[in-house]
Design brief:
about 325 residues, alpha/beta, 7-stranded parallel β-sheet, 5-stranded parallel β-sheet, about 25% strand, binds flavin-adenine dinucleotide, electron transport
Length: about 325
């Protein structure tokens, strides 16, 4: 049994929570089979993060630390991970299903000529084969899939679904040979949208607003409620298309897929494309003045009322806690 290799994504020297979740799930599965877990970490000036991954169960950490890897380069990153695969010979490679993880997973699978199981929400062993459960048809059904015979199978894990749990061990750090960064383009500038705001893809609580808000100025209500809850601000596509809020906040089929502990939908009808992005939330609260709104079919708690009265009252009550 060759073990599981986890690609650990970092941004500005901070390891992404989605990667720690993937690493923890890899550890749980590997332990059940007595297999090793290794990690691969890429970037510039990231070596000092490597040993710390032992805290999360990585017994070996492959590191490629070179200035050219400071920005994500699909070809170079796939090349570096492929080098780690060649050394670790894993049965599976896990990545968090972040924007970067989703892009890299497909390239890596194509490079290795193996299968890719994207955006999985559960993993288990079937004998010695890894089986994954993943939502299909916009979350209407769950498919159980495996990667066929080609190894390693590449798997991306949906953020916020798997628990990030420490499993301390001592990590051996192995340097990877430098990769050649070539290709038809180079990143000249990275523009970060609305710095400081929580990313809905990784947030534990999300307060989302839709067309029921009537205008961009009323997102202030959503932001106030989000602030008292320590939540991220989400939005329906109708609100984004109207130019009320940036696309980075959009939840749904053509936005981000989220699985927070608590999702509060305000003035959102619950179209199938919106549900595709949030129906795996653990607890869903809907605030809508229409008792027939489809969002109530997936909501655990529903408030039938005018959001312009309900949200300020809710914010006030939570502030008192
Ligand atoms: P509406 O459907 O107009 O709903 C507004 C709701 O607000 C209503 O239920 C109304 O009762 C309620 N309301 C109004 N006033 C108040 C008030 N004062 N108090 C309380 N409630 C009030 N949508 C997404 O969200 N994400 C996606 O990623 C996405 N991708 C798409 C991809 C494709 C290919 C297509 C075709 C569509 C996609 N859509 C997506 C659009 C989707 O079909 C819906 O049009 C959209 O989700 C509707 O947004 P909404 O719920 O904010 O607006």
């Amino acid at each position: 049994m060759a073990g599981i290799l986890v690609f650990v994504e970092q941004r500005d020297g901070q390891i992404r929570k989605a990667s720690l979740e993937a690493l923890s799930e890899a550890k749980r599965l590997a332990q059940a089979k007595g297999m090793p877990v290794s990690a691969v970490l890429l970037g510039s000036g990231v070596s000092q993060l490597a040993a710390g991954l032992g805290e999360w169960g990585a017994e070996k950490v492959f590191v490629a630390d070179q200035p050219e890897l400071a920005q994500y380069s699909p070809q170079a990153y796939a090349q570096a991970v492929a080098q780690a695969v060649a050394q670790a010979q894993p049965q599976a490679v896990f990545l968090g299903a972040t924007a970067l993880g989703r892009d890299l997973s497909g390239r890596l699978a194509a490079k290795l000529k193996v299968g890719c199981l994207p955006d999985v929400t559960a993993l288990k062993w079937d004998g010695d084969t890894l089986q994954a459960v993943r939502p299909v048809y916009s979350g209407k059904a769950l498919a159980t899939v495996d990667g066929g015979h080609a190894v390693p199978v590449v798997v991306t894990t949906r953020p916020n679904v798997f628990a990030a749990q420490k499993s301390p061990t001592t990590a051996e750090v192995v340097s990877l040979p430098a990769v050649a960064v070539s290709g038809g383009y180079r990143v000249k500038e990275v523009v970060t949208s609305q710095g400081g705001e929580l990313d809905v893809a990784e947030a534990d609580i999300i307060v989302s607003g839709g067309r029921g808000l009537r205008g961009p100025e009323n997102f202030a209500l959503i932001r106030e409620l989000a602030k008292v809850l320590g939540a991220a601000v989400g939005a329906s596509r109708a609100a984004v298309d109207a130019g009320w809020i940036d696309h980075a906040h959009q939840v749904g089929q053509t936005g981000k897929v989220v699985s927070p502990t608590l999702y509060i939908a305000c003035g959102i009808s619950g179209a199938i494309q919106h549900l595709a992005g949030m129906s795996s939330s653990k607890v869903i609260v809907a605030i809508n003045k229409d008792p027939e709104a489809p969002i109530f079919k997936v909501a655990d708690y529903g408030v039938v009322g005018d959001l312009f009265q309900v949200i300020p009252a809710l914010t006030e009550e939570i502030r008192k806690l």
